[in-house]
Amino acid sequence: GAGVSQSPSNKVTEKGKDVELRCDPISGHTALYWYRQSLGQGLEFLIYFQGNSAPDKSGLPSDRFSAERTGGSVSTLTIQRTQQEDSAVYLCASSSLGGYGNTIYFGEGSWLTVV
Amino acid sequence: GEDVEQSLFLSVREGDSSVINCTYTDSSSTYLYWYKQEPGAGLQLLTYIFSNMDMKQDQRLTVLLNKKDKHLSLRIADTQTGDSAIYFCAESGSQGNLIFGKGTKLSVKP
């Protein structure tokens, strides 16, 4: 597609349930990123995929969070046993190459509310 | 470690210039970025500067980079109410991701 596409755009879930957030990067982009933005906070890095390399998972806040990227394209971020503090906007981004000097393009985000 | 700092709020009057400042820690960052986030929307790349440049101008936007002091600024000339948004400074991190600041909320008063 023309831009990074994320779904759902809004999700309300009950505490303890699992959620899956989907990201479809710009066609041909090999690098894919997940960030989290809590209300009034900056952007928190979660995970980074680059081609066939092992993902950089250093930003995942707990083992309830996981992400995969199938076929080097679409990515799914899964949050198990959601907690209220998981409420945030989850932003996906992609770029043509990882590493330095690459413009990263963001999707509109998935707004997650845990009640 | 890698860190980006910026002031949280800036308020200006319509027609004035806005200057948003940012400091970063990773001297090896090749590119530095400014992103804009309008209310309820995702992040939009505004401009970026290569680390061997001191200045980059793009219409009403001027980016100044002081590599020695690791200081980056974004100047918006003739600020309009439509410029009201949160502006994020970012540096390229060693792992290939971007390290963002907390964002500066720009309020433009008519």
Q: Can you give keywords for this protein?
A:
heterodimer; A: 115 residues; mainly beta; six-stranded mixed sheet; four-stranded antiparallel sheet; 10 strands; 0% helix; globular; B: 110 residues; five-stranded antiparallel sheet
How would you describe the overall organization of this protein?
The complex is a heterodimer of chains A (115) and B (110). Chain A has strands at 5-7, 10-13, 19-24, 31-37, 43-50, 65-69, 75-79, 88-95, 105-106, 110-114. Chain A has 115 residues and is mainly beta. In chain A, strands 2, 4, 5, 8, 9 and 10 form a six-stranded mixed sheet that branches. A four-stranded antiparallel sheet of chain A has the order 1-3-7-6, with no helix packed on it. The mean pLDDT of chain A is 90. The model of chain B has no long low-confidence stretch (mean pLDDT 90). The chains are: A mainly beta (115), B mainly beta (110). Chain A binds chain B through residues 31, 33, 35, 41-43, 45, 48, 50, 56, 58, 91, 93, 98-109, and chain B through 29-31, 33, 35, 41-45, 48, 50, 88, 92-93, 95-103.
Query: What is the first-to-last residue Cα distance of chain A?
Result: 33 Å
Characterize the biggest β-sheet of chain A: 6 strands, mixed
Low-confidence stretches of chain A: none
Number of helices of chain A: 0
**Total number of strands of chain B:** 11
How do the SSEs of chain A run, as a string of H and E?
A: EEEEEEEEEE
- Radius of gyration of chain B, in angstroms, nearest whole number: 13 Å
Task: State Rg of chain A.
Answer: 13 Å
Number of strands of chain A: 10
Largest interface, with counts of residues having CB < 8 Å to the other chain, equals: A-B, 25 and 24 residues
- Mean pLDDT over the full residue set of chain A: 90
β-strand amount of chain B: over 45%
CA-based shape of chain B: globular
Mean pLDDT over all positions of chain B: 90
Query: Strand pairing plus helix content of chain A: what structural class?
Result: mainly beta
